[in-house]
């Protein structure tokens, strides 16, 4: 009799199942480095030259996401760092794409867009920052660290741009 004390009647277990399925799910399943490249097109000569001015640093990044199967999303943050001399000669070019596979279920469409454009990239981005800095360190050049990014502000800016574009397209030309 003691063996069955913790068991629930079949009806009670079946009644709890639908309640669990309706619960929203947001979970990082896996974070991985999808792609990384490092180029030093003018090495080793560029490393031997005396630099009279501070190098120019250009940092770009973008976020993309795609549904890979039901309730499973792949969110990728791509970052590119280009460092050039004052004479516009490339010292180093580093690019990486860091991705996360997220299980997302039970979240309505509008909040889902917020999750995949703000929360997911915020979780993946620190890994990208570390990987790109590590690549530069391994190339024996001073690392450029990607800045902290507020993905919420970027998402709101993209929404405002899309809304402005939609309004321009609705306005008849004179």
TrEMBL record:
Keywords: Chaperone, Cytoplasm, Protein transport, Translocation, Transport. GO terms for cellular component: cytoplasm. Residues 1-22 are annotated as: Disordered. SUPFAM superfamilies: SecB-like. It comes from the Bacteria. Pfam families: SecB. One of its GO terms (molecular function) is unfolded protein binding. The keyword Nuclease does not apply. One of the proteins required for the normal export of preproteins out of the cell cytoplasm. It is a molecular chaperone that binds to a subset of precursor proteins, maintaining them in a translocation-competent state. It also specifically binds to its receptor SecA. Homotetramer, a dimer of dimers. One homotetramer interacts with 1 SecA dimer. Belongs to the SecB family. This is Protein-export protein SecB. It comes from Sutterella seckii. The gene is secB.
């Amino acid at each position: 009799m003691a063996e069955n004390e913790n068991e629930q009647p079949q009806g009670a277990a079946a009644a709890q199942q639908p309640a669990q399925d309706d619960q929203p799910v947001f979970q990082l399943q896996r974070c991985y480095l999808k792609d990384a490249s490092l180029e030093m097109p003018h090495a080793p000569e560029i490393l031997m030259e005396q630099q009279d001015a501070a190098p120019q640093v250009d940092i770009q990044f973008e976020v993309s996401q795609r549904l890979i199967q039901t309730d499973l999303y792949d969110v990728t943050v791509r970052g590119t760092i280009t460092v050039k001399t004052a004479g516009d000669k490339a010292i180093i070019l580093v690019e990486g794409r860091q991705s996360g596979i997220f299980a997302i279920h039970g979240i309505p469409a509008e909040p889902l867009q917020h999750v995949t454009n703000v929360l997911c990239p915020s979780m993946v981005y620190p890994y990208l920052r570390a990987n790109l800095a590590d690549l530069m360190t391994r190339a024996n050049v001073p690392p450029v660290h990607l800045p902290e990014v507020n993905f919420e502000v970027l998402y709101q800016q993209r929404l405002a741009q899309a809304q402005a574009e939609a309004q321009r397209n609705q306005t008849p030309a004179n």
